[in-house]
């Protein structure tokens, strides 16, 4: 549950002070495990947050401590005092930004990119639809199409893991599903929110809500965990009248398969499935644990599990843009995660995780392959 905890200082400080220093949260935190640095642990970050909310100056190392948190939410599962650790860490970033002491320059650079180019990955807006084959492009009406369902692809799918744009698009077309895509799609704003810049994030949210209203959008389908979490949780927190139905592409494909609009044939493969934090643990959706697995099973794929799947599945290592802050943490988290993957292929339903796993694989010179789930579904449909 998300609350405006940054608005109630006394309650917030009381919550922080209810910590009994048992440090059980540290045991589960990936950034602490790979660094052994108290400033990069949940308990350590809570103490930094206490300083922030008490108007005590923090050091640069402490600021980095806050900004190397992936906001994965794992620590929140362990705290017997029920302290909302990751929310407090996020709120302390918001406070620092309000005081003009954050975010870091890398965040400001990416936020400027989002404002100028409508995406968080530095992509050229003119190239946003490069993934869309000419045969589709010539028939596509984009914004002009009279459909109340928008397939919102997000920055990662549009520019970096483009098969996670193409395969969902093709699957919906093959199923004769009514939807539209945008020629000029904005960023959802999750990156800006995670960096703590609430004013700019809320402005982006407001502009997107206006755009969806203008286009008559009543249903959003997303491919990315960040977009899902942003639209379905964060937007609703700040805009009570935001009543658009938000679903992940897997939920839509699952429904289409149930009503026989999609037929899946066996691929006979073995993969390991990774539950992205913003689709699973932070989103708190049972169906998004079970439906990807059921679909993979129907594709004739044997799914191996990571030892802590689904709810305690480790973060891919890239949440909240920590790669730009300290890439070594992200590489170490990914390496540790890969060491528990028996199969060659690791599959997820979030393009940011796919992108990061590929980076980690390259940096660690490993031999794993990372794929977005719809690759298999499309292959199985076309078989
Ligand atoms: S688990 Fe909770 S009580 Fe224990 S150290 Fe962490 S925040 Fe404090
Ligand atoms: S949210 Fe994740 S990275 Fe941040 S302190 Fe908690 S467990 Fe560690």
Helix percent band: 40-55%
CATH class of the largest domain: Alpha Beta
Radius of gyration: 20 Å
* Strands, total number: 7
User: Average pLDDT value?
Assistant: 95
N-to-C SSE string, H for helix and E for strand: HHHHHHHHEHHHHEHEHEHEHHEHEH
Walk me through what this model shows.
The chain has a four-stranded parallel beta sheet, with helices on both faces. The chain folds into three domains: 5-98, Alpha-helical ferredoxin (Fumarate Reductase Iron-sulfur Protein, Chain B, domain 2), CATH 1.10.1060.10; 105-255, Rossmann fold (3-Layer(aba) Sandwich); 264-382, Rossmann fold (3-Layer(aba) Sandwich), CATH 3.40.50. It has 383 residues and is an alpha/beta fold. It is globular. Helix content is 49%, strand content 8%. Bound molecules: iron/sulfur cluster (2 copies). Residues 19-25, 42-43, 46, 78-79, 81, 83, 85 line the site of one iron/sulfur cluster.
Quick overview of this protein structure:
The chain is an alpha/beta fold and 383 residues long. It has 19 helices and seven strands. The strands form two sheets. Strands 5-4-6-7 form a four-stranded parallel β-sheet, sandwiched between helices. A three-stranded parallel β-sheet has the order 1-2-3.
Question: Main attributes?
Answer:
383 residues, alpha/beta, Fumarate Reductase Iron-sulfur Protein, Chain B, domain 2, Rossmann fold, 3 domains, four-stranded parallel β-sheet, 19 helices, 8% strand, globular, binds iron/sulfur cluster
Topology:
Elements: H1 9-17, H2 24-28, H3 30-35, H4 42-53, H5 60-67, H6 85-98, H7 105-117, H8 134-137, E1 149-152, H9 154-160, H10 163-174, H11 190-194, H12 198-214, E2 219-222, H13 225-238, E3 245-248, H14 249-258, E4 269-274, H15 287-298, E5 301-305, H16 322-325, H17 327-338, E6 345-348, H18 351-363, E7 369-372, H19 374-382
Parallel strand pairs: 1-2, 2-3, 4-5, 4-6, 6-7
The protein binds iron/sulfur cluster (2 copies).
One iron/sulfur cluster (SF4) is lined by residues 29, 31, 42, 45, 69-75, 85-86, 89.
């Amino acid at each position: 549950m998300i609350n405006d905890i940054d608005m109630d200082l006394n309650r917030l400080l009381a919550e922080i002070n209810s910590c009994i220093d048992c440090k059980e949260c540290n045991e589960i935190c990936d950034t602490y495990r790979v660094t052994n640095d108290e400033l990069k642990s949940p308990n350590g970050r809570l103490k930094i947050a206490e300083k922030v909310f008490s108007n005590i100056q923090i050091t640069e190392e402490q600021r980095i401590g806050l900004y190397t948190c992936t906001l994965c939410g794992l620590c929140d599962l362990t705290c017997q005092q029920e302290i909302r650790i990751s929310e407090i860490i996020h709120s302390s970033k918001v406070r620092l930004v309000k005081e003009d002491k954050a975010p870091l320059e890398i965040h400001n650079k990416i936020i400027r990119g989002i404002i100028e180019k409508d995406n968080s990955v530095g992509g050229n807006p003119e190239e946003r639809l490069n993934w869309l084959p000419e045969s589709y492009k010539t028939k596509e009406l984009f914004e002009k199409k009279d459909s109340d369902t928008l397939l919102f692809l997000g920055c990662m799918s549009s520019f970096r893991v483009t098969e996670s744009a193409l395969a969902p698009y093709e699957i919906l077309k093959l199923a004769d599903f009514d939807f539209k895509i945008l020629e000029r799609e904005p960023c959802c704003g999750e990156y800006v929110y995670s960096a703590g810049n609430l004013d700019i994030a809320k402005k982006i949210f407001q502009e997107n809500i206006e755009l969806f209203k203008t286009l008559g959008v009543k249903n959003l389908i997303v491919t990315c965990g960040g977009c899902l979490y942003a639209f379905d949780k964060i937007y609703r927190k700040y805009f009570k009248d935001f009543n658009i139905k938000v679903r992940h592409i897997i939920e839509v494909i699952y429904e289409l398969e149930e009503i026989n609009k999609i037929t899946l044939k066996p691929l006979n493969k073995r993969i390991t499935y990774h539950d992205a934090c913003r689709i699973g643990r932070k989103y708190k959706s049972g169906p998004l644990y079970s439906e990807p697995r059921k679909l993979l099973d129907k594709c004739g794929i044997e799914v191996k599990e990571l030892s802590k799947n689904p709810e305690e599945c480790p973060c891919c290592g890239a949440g909240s843009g920590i790669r730009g802050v300290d890439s070594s943490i992200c590489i170490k988290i990914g390496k540790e995660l890969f060491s528990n993957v028996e199969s060659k292929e690791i599959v997820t339903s979030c393009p940011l995780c796919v992108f990061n796993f590929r980076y980690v694989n390259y940096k660690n010179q490993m031999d794993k392959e990372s794929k977005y789930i719809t690759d298999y579904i499309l292959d199985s449909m076309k078989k």
